[in-house]
Structure formats: structure tokens, C-alpha cells
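Here we describe the complex-level prediction in full. Unlike the single-chain runs in Section 2.1, the two entities below were treated as one system.
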Amino acid sequence: MAYYILKRLLAMIPTLLGVAVLIFVLLRIVPGDVVEARYLGQGSQFQSQELMDLERKKLGLDQPLWTQFTTWMAGLARLDFGLSMWTGSPITEEIKLRFALSLQLAIMASIFAQLLAIPLGILAALKQDTWVDYAVRVFSIAGLAMPSFWLGILMILTMLIVFKWVPPMVFTPLWVNPWENLAQLIWPALAVGYRYSAVGTRMMRSAMLEVLREDYIRTARAKGLWLKLILARHALKNAILPVLTVMSLEFAFLLGGLVVTEQVFNLNGLGMLFVEAIARRDYTLTQALVMLVATFFLIVNFVVDIAYAWLDPRIRYR
Amino acid sequence: MSGPLLAVESLQTLIDASQGPVRAVDGVSFELRTGECFALVGESGCGKSVTALSIMRLLPEAGRIAAGRVLLDGADLLALPEAAMRAVRGKRVAMIFQEPSTALNPVLTVGRQIAEVIERHSGLSGDAARRRALELLEAVGIPDGARRIDEYAFQLSGGLRQRVMIAAALAVDPEVLIADEPTTALDVTIQAQILDLLAKLQAERGMALLLITHDLGIVAKMAQRVAVMYAGEIVEVAVRDEFLRAPQHPYSQKLFESLPSPGRRAGELAVIRGQVPALTGGFRGCRFAERCDLAFERCREEAPRLLELGGGRRARCHLREAGLAPPRQAELSSGIERPEAKPQRTLLDVDGLKVHFQIRRGIFRRAVGYVRAVDGVSFALHEGRTLALVGESGCGKTTAGKALLQLLAPTAGSVRYEGAELAGLSRAAMRPRRGAMQMIFQDPYASLNPRMRVAEILLEGMRALGVGRDDAQREARLAELLGEVGLPGEALGRYPHEFSGGQRQRIAVARALAVNPRLIVCDEPTSALDVSVQAQILNLLRSLQQRRGIAYLFITHNLSVVEYLAHEVAVMYLGRIVERGTVQEVLRDPKHPYTQALLSAVPTLEGGREIIRLSGELPSPANPPAGCHFHPRCPKARPECRAAYPENLPLGESRTVACVLYRGASGEGSSAASSS
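The structure predicted for the assembly as a whole is:
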């Protein structure tokens, strides 16, 4: 098992290297750079070419591409992401708080989604084709159909109009004031988690339906076992595997993909930062964010694979 | 004697289908006494499994019990609330199923799946339950139980899995065990082990066994009393010996007559014409009347009752009333041999054929070993003759069949068709020869494309191989082809799913015939079919051979089919042929200890034959035992068997055997031996 884990960790390196090359090249294929974005973007046509060249020189953009790449790689190897090309402050500082916020939001949304998806999916499968099943299906389709930002707006308006109360609009880290923190983040977590749970509910329902028709469930019933035990021991362990895969992919997406929802709740998360970094052609910041999200994806995938091996002996003993 | 242990009374079970409810079980009554083995026999779809599931109240969602009672010690199980029924299942009535690989939960250990029954029903828990599970593993003959108890189903062979199922079923000493085709998915030598085990445990524990099977040989071996089911009804009940001696119902008689056996080599096997009627509608007369050779007017007008014939015999047939016709004796003769034609010229010559698959491991996919699926197989196939390649699952017989058609690339050896080498030919070079060599597969449900009409299925091969000048000419042949395999011409426009299993296999035969082959590899073509349908396909294959002079390589595990159809036999074990010869030689007088064990393990109607019990299971072909592959299981093994794989010793004109026991007896001895 230790060998397997080590092997999987080492296998991440070539993947990350591939991502690095890809994002490096893609960013430079897109026309314009941070200097143009800053000066031309201000509507001033009169910036001198010399000034712009000077700026580029300062940022190292005059270097040949492979030099830029190796410099970046050398930094990455030391976990040094460098400075943001736009603000000039260390990227680690830029990302730190926003990462904490986004990660916390993703985890909260995910917990909420699991709490909703797994029981609802099982319930719908057990009561297949009854009103319970239809209700769950309508609920989950509504979740898929409704964008989370729209649900977010509805939530805020409801709280404002009905309760005359608005959640805090300034982010307080969890370790500073947990109450304030949760009062702010619980709402976006619910809005995002609802949509996220829909995918899981539908997956849980279909996986459960499939497993309940398996021969070994009939065997378990022939043994006279209680329904609860059959579900918990025999069915769930087999049915949870595909749910795990789908949910984990969604989870990794939550980290960097919540641009609009962050705006609705006035959250300063990674999603917003990502959009800004790209719009400003802030190469160093964009690259760092992409690497961060990619690493996160790989880690989540890795954890899921370990969980698979833990749940399914056929994988463990291969 | 205080009445039966389990009594099923007028049970009626409906299965909802799109065409309306199917009356899968329609008024079935029988009794099971303490300590007896009662067999419920019938072909697929007759309602025997649904009867078992109804007793357990484990019907699929679409099923419901419409009427009847199931009395266990006088108390009606159908009237119990579900919670009370749960206390009966596993505790008083236990059940084992056909397919042990799907009936066990893949993600739970064997020990867990046995212990949970103990915990549920006996109050023991934790370590005590585990210790009891360990004892059970021992009782069902699983070696090294202390290690096996923490293993998972996928780590066990089929035979061991079924033993685990039995252990779980018997965990709290149920009064009744229902075994639904418990050995159908297993090889014969393993089947013999499992049947022995069931008989032994039944005798030890004095429990009643309701055995559901389609195999009359198993009935002969196991049951005290028998009931035959047809189309949702019981048509005959009898004590075993009387049933075997003189079955009373025409359907039971037909079942016996359609069994392939050496005595029937000369002629055709009896077939039951037509198909089982749909069980959605009602019946006026006898359900079997349309297919019965003896039916008369009354059979179509009036449904027969289950008549008491005395001595516990009952039959649902008008003929039995007032002795309208004498019951026919079941024919059990064996002997008359068909005069064998002289060997024809050689069509296919296989020499030293090997197919090895690499096992790859690690990041760099290094080859760490080989599975020697086929490891040096030689035989010749003659025009118009049938060679049967016999062996248990995993012995490499199917791989050999595919390799000689070049559907798999052989690792070594030669395959010559009329003298021309096929091994190593490119796809393009092989193509013009494909027409001469065709294949029929085991499962007609999977081997025909469900999106293609029969006409397209037949035309596809003809077009690809350029049979016929143009489509008009090809289409002209279609009706003739269908006629040849006994299907009506209107079948051309229909899709495979509209046909029964037997009819589909006929389509598969027609597809092979369409390109005028000289040789057909038949890979278990009847093992997915019922006996009466199997008889139809065997008759068809036989008559096609006589008409067209086609050679068959018949790959099978079913020795009675071999006896009926084949001229020569080659017995395979772990990738090699251990014995080869004509059918009479090998089946009448087997020489190799494996052949002897294989033959003795087949349950026969005559019974009484001493079974040579093979210990253990088939070893892995990735790591075959040193020396003779068979020696660890061989009852006659000697020290030298461990040293080297024995050479092929010729015993007479057409016969070889690879066993050290015959070193002295062989004529030429080592001069003709092929080293391996």
C-alpha cells in the first residue's frame, strides 16, 4: 500500500509538468501582455514604446521564452511563485486568504451536498416510482436547472425582505471569528451545495437501483437480514463508488470555478482572482493559480483512488 | 409421522410483463418431508425457480403471489408479516443460488458473510460468531479456512465460492435448504464435489433439500422423489427409481429421449416440436398438447388433472386415465456403436500450437510471466468428421479454437489447412481462407447483432467473402439456407430478439453455412440451451455434416454430447492434450487418470458408478505444477510424475496418452514421443 501511494504521488509530477507547459504556452499565444493591458487599457494612446519596453524588461518579459520558463520552473521547485506582474506583491500573499476562503466554501458546500445527496438518493431508489421518488427527482432536477448565483440572489433577497437581515459582507477568517465567518459563508455554501447535491443524488439513486437488483442483495435477503443492515453493509458500500467519483470531480471544480456566486455574495475568492488575473494578462499569477487548481485536482483524485481501494478489495489486492 | 415439513398448496405466482401478467407458477402443489431430497425438474421458463422464490417470498418486484399456501410445519408462510418472514429466512428455510460469483457480495469478506447469518439468528456475535464461521468453512471442506475467512469472493474459485454459499446457508441449521441449480455454473469434477457435499451435509443434519435442476443425471444421483414442471404446472410426481425406469408423462419421456447418449449415436435424438406456450393467456386443454406426439382430441378440449397412479405417483395426462396407453419404458440401453467410416483426408493439421498471454506489471508494464493458455497442442481434423476438444473451464480449449482460426495470434506452432500454413498470415492473407473456416459461439443471445435483421446477418458474411456474384444471387440463397437449418423463410425480416435460444443458434449456424465452410469450430454451441433444444441443434449439426461433409471441431465440457456427436476426442488439461483417441476408445476405456476422473464425475441416469474424487481445484495456467500438470490432483501419482511432463505415448493406431503409467504398455515407447 505504501508503495502504491508513493507510486501515485510520483506519477503526479509528469502530469503537473504537462499542465505547466500547456498553460505557459497558451497564455503567451493570447495576444497582449500585462504591460499593454495596464497602459493601453487606461485609454491612453500616448504611452511611449520606450516606457513599455522598460516595463517589460523590469518584469522579465524581454527574456527568451525558454529562459522565462526555466526561471518559473526553478521558482516552482522551491515553492516560490514569484511576484504578481500586476500588483508586484508576492503571489503567495495574493492567494493565501482567497484560497482559505474558497477551500472553506468548497468543503462546506461539499459536506452539505453529501448530507443531502446520499440519503435522498437512497430514499428515491428504495421508493422507486412512488411520489417520494418523483419529489426527489423534481428537487434534484431543479437544483441542476437553477444556477447557484440565482439561488444566491433569491436567498439574499428573502433574508433582506422577510428577516430584515443581510449576512456579513466582509470576510472574517474562521480562526478570527468563527461565528461571523459561518454567518457569511453558510449561504453561498447552501446555494452551491444544492446544485452540487443534485448531481450526487441522481448518481446515488441510479447506482443504488442497480445494486439492489444484484444477486448478492437477494442472497442477503435470503439470509433473513434486517433491511437496514442489507442497505448499510451490502448495498451502500457497492453503490457509493460511482457517487464518490462524480462528487470529487465537482468538488475540485468548486475551488476555482465559482466566479458569479462569489460576486453575488461579495466574496473575494479564487474564482474572482482567476478572472482578474487572466483579464490583466498577469502571467505569473494565472500560472500559479492554474498550478494550484491542477495540484488540488490531482490530490482529490488521489484521495478518491485511495478511498476506492479501501472500499473495494478487488482494487486493493490487484 | 406428523405430516410434511413443507407443503406447497395450489401456489399461483404472476410476473407482470408488458403483455400482461405471466402465470409463471400456476397451481403448483407438492410436499417436502423431513430429511428427504425432493427434486423439481424442468427446462428454463417452466417456473421452478419462481416456485422457490415464492416459497422464500423473495420474488422480483414484478412478481406477486396470487393464490395458494406455503405451510412450514403447518404455519402458512404467505400469511406472515414481512418481519416474521425475515426470522424464517436463513433460520428455518435457507437458499443457495446458481451463480456463486454474483450471489456473494464482492466487497465483504467470506467470514463476514457467513457470520452475519449467525449473528442474525443465533445470538452469537463477534469472536464467537467468527469461530462458528470458521467451523462451518471446515465443515464444507474449504482447506485453510483460517486464511480463507478473511478473503473476498473474487479470490476464490467457483467451487470454493459455492462452498461458502453453502456454509452461509447452513450456518444456523435450517430445516429446509432450497438449492436452485447449485452446480450449473460449475465444472463436472467440481459439480461432483459439491453434490457429494450437499448429500453428506443433508444426511448429517437431517434437513430437507428442495433441489431445483434441469439435469436428470443430478436427479438420479441426489433425489428421493421427483416432480417435473412444464409451463407453470407440475406434470408428474414420482419416486426417483420409478421415475427413471418408466416416466409417465409424455413430456418427461421426451426429456429422457432427447438426452444424447452413446446408444442413440445411430439415429436422431428425439425432439419436442414447437415451443413452450406463452403463459399470459388461459388454456383450455393440456398445456403440452400442441407439442405432444400422443395427443388426441380430448387433450385439446379438457385440461387433465394430476391423476393419482398409486405408490405416490401422479401424472397430469389423460392417457394415464384408465390405462389408455401403456407407459413407455425409458430407454437406458447403451452399446450399439455406429460403424465408423474410414478416416477421410486431413483438412486441418495442428502441430505444437501454443498461445501464451503475457502478464504485465508495474509502471513500465514489464512482462513478469506468461499464462500458458494453450501449451503445445497437436491434432488433425479430417473431412466430414468431428473432433471433440473436451476439458473444464480454463483448460484452454476455446483459446485453441480461436487460435487455429487465427482469431488469436498463436505464439508458436503450426496450423496447416490442406497443407498451407495459416499461422503468421496477415489479416489480408487470411481473408480469402475465412470462408472455409467458420465458428459458432456459445451464447446465441450475445453472438448475433441485435440491430441487424436475419437477412442482413446472413448477407454480411457472404458479401465480405465474395460468396455469390451479386446481392440478387446471394438473396436467392437466403431462403434455402434458412430451410437447411429448419427456420421459415419469413424469419429473414425479423430481428434476433424475436427468436428463442434454439432458433437463434439455428441462425448462427445458417450464418456460418452461408459462406460454404469446410470446417466449423463449434464453441459450446448447446451449453446455453435446454436439453430438448440441445437435441434439435445436435440433430441439425449431425445432418449438415452428413449432407455437406463439413468437419467440426466441437469444443465442449459436456461428455454426453461428445458421445453422441464426435468421432474423435482430445481431452485437455491446463493447456495440453492429455489423451486423444476415437470416441469408443477414450470414453469406453479412458486411460489417463484425468479422463477417468472426468468421466466418472458426470452424473448419469444409471448411477451406481464409482466416482473418482479429485481433490482441489484447477491450478492457474500462469503457474502450472512442475512435472505432470495433473499430479497434485492425481489419485495415481508417482514420484516420477513430479520430475517432468510425461511424453505422449501412442497406444494403438489413433490413440495417445500423456501419462507415465503407460510407459511399459506403449508399443513404440519413446521413439514416437514428442517432448514438451
